[in-house]
Amino acid sequence: MTSLDAPLPDTWFRRDLPVLRAVARLVDEPRHGGAPYLGQVVPASGLPKPDVLAAARALTDAGYVEVLTTYSGEIVRFTGVSPEARRLAGLWPTPQGEWERLLEQLAARAANAPSDVERARWRAFSDAAVAVGPDDGALLMSALIGGYVPRAR
Length: 153
Known about the structure:
Blueprint (H helix, E strand, L loop, with lengths): L11 H17 L9 H8 L3 H13 L3 E5 L5 E7 L1 H7 L5 H18 L3 H17 L1 H12 L8
Antiparallel strand pairs: 1-2
Helix pairs in contact: 1-2, 1-3, 1-4, 5-6, 5-7
């Protein structure tokens, strides 16, 4: 296998995702006015400036972040993040994450119910949700997050 045939090294988990999370956090913080400077993102990401710049270009090209640049194309500020970037950074819910939260809530309510009757009801609800499974559960949560409610026939 030649070097041209070898897969490229991962940059998403090592570089791009940490920068995306830093940008998303800073854009959401009011003290930065929703548009943090590159110099604020570098320490927030924990990565060296060249890595942050490379990640910023990749994230911009992918449409995850919006940036303000100089005339020469140098990134100065981050002015926004896309809805998908908010989900990837953990700022907005994902169907899988919300399904897990629902299962945790059901188990907690079953464990902490004040009476045997209520405990049995919550346990049955929890058991039914577990039986639905993570795939169908995520589909249900996707509909709930998106505001879809089936019409009665």
